[in-house]
């Protein structure tokens, strides 16, 4: 019984969202506002149960680990944004978050986006694939060089690099569109199979 | 099959004994004696047979603290049994037993499949002695190795396999700091024009002329994502221009912290432009964390507010094409910037200008002309030039069969 009601609600909301393909209308507005409201509430509960409780309340109040006073204080400072007179205090935890993550990711990105990529490209230039790899990576890097204007030979190499990028984007575009079509198929299957029982 | 033959073979002496009695008609008094002798011989043969059926034990069992880690891990290594993948092929698995005393009780802590020769025990207490036994089993019978010597786990301050990372990070930081210093001394650092950036001012101006708002979307990730940070820096520039032109700026966000940061940034930009009175915090609002809920909300804003300019600056996922297509359908000039490789094709297709990957990060430096950002960009450029040099040298060396450069650059895990 409840499952059937759930399927009907899901199907009607799906149609409401699809109605946007025609134009903006009250059905879409209803589904949109419902989606945003429900998901915002859902994520608030999710963060409380999966982030705040296990990572702050339990270690601090149940296990008595005093180090967790620091995130508690930072969290309270963040909430002070709601008090106009002292809202400037909320900048401090923000600066802490931004600074910490910038430093943390410097090393991560240097490893994954620089050293490991370079190491993987150091291949013997004996096959067509390895030559394409080498030329593509090198000319691509030249395109992302900002200290010199793209003119003359340097500009030509950079242009070659952007061609490589565009070919890669084209391939990626086709691949991702295929994946999106599968999402549409999933929705249509839900409507025709679970809701209308037209297909088995 | 050979093993089976050998086990039946132990019965042949008994058969031969009865034939002997029948053929030579041995006197009755020596019969019991001979019978006992044969039984003893048979038992001995059976004992030998049981020993043959046991799998060969593992050899060379060694233990050591796992190097370059944060402690609480011990590596147990052994040379696999002769019957593992060879011999009688009887080894099913290895059981790893651990004790805190050499002659104490050993408990099974895990099993490793046949063929394995290493196990990392990641459940130890640093500074405590542990002893290990590797048990070879065929599923029924087993044989243990000798207990190992005592071993302790410990944490290391430095990961010696990642010294190349340290060198790279120090070098890159030095370049960046050097260029920042040069920029702060007033030296003019050249950055080539980036096509998409020239369009930023044009887009804001267009929105002002049309009397329509500007929509700025800072991606769907939080402030821990470097792309969101870059997006917020560009938002500062866009907000400043919007304040100067008295244009309306809308910033829907998918994260509450991004909303707070965006409000601070826009407020500061409006104040710097001398128009703090135009700042309206309600125009920078949080919608939802849900990816497609956010996409639906932004689509609704686009259709109802009909912005003249849309900026997509940050980290995007599957919602990118939905947003960009809707923006295109309302006739807005669209400028995107992201470093998400899978989403770039959609922005390239649906937007008027796209800042690809590092162009997006360069944009914040280019727009702000801020010495620290300019210095960072120039420092990274020098790093890229060095990497291009390494690529050329490394590929030539690899073609010649020389691999030391690859080894030097390989980062330890």
How would you characterize the overall build of this protein?
The complex is a heterodimer of chains A (200) and B (413). Chain A is built from six helices and no strands. With 200 residues, chain A is mainly α. Chain A has two domains: 1-91, no CATH class; 107-200, no CATH class. The mean pLDDT of chain A is 92. Chain B folds into four domains: 2-53; 59-144, Immunoglobulin-like (Sandwich), CATH 2.60.40; 160-177 and 375-409, no CATH class; 189-369, Rossmann fold. In chain B, the strands form three sheets. Chain B has a six-stranded parallel β-sheet, sandwiched between helices. In chain B, strands 4-3-6-7 form a four-stranded antiparallel β-sheet, with no helix packed on it. A three-stranded antiparallel β-sheet of chain B has the order 1-2-5, with no helix packed on it. Chain B is an alpha/beta fold and 413 residues long. Chain B is elongated.
DSSP strand (E) fraction of chain A? under 5%
| Beta-strand share of residues of chain B | 15-25%
What oligomerization state is this entry in?
A: heterodimer
Order of helices and strands of chain B: HHHEEEEEEEHHEHEHEHEHEHEHHH
List keywords for this structure.
heterodimer, A: about 200 residues, mainly alpha, B: about 425 residues, alpha/beta, Immunoglobulin-like, 4 domains, 6-stranded parallel β-sheet, 4-stranded antiparallel β-sheet, about 50% helix
Produce a short descriptive summary.
By secondary structure, chain A is an all-alpha fold. Chain A is built from six helices and no strands. Chain A has helices at 2-18, 26-62, 69-79, 91-121, 128-143, 152-195.
Summarize the topology.
The complex is a heterodimer of chains A (200) and B (413).
Chain A: H1 2-18, H2 26-62, H3 69-79, H4 91-121, H5 128-143, H6 152-195
Chain B: H1 2-9, H2 12-24, H3 31-53, E1 59-65, E2 74-79, E3 93-99, E4 107-113, E5 118-121, E6 131-137, E7 142-144, H4 163-184, H5 195-210, E8 214-217, H6 226-245, E9 249-253, H7 256-272, E10 284-286, H8 291-305, E11 309-313, H9 320-329, E12 333-338, H10 344-350, E13 353-356, H11 358-368, H12 371-399, H13 404-409
Helix pairs in contact in B: 2-3, 4-12, 5-6, 6-7, 6-11, 8-9, 11-12
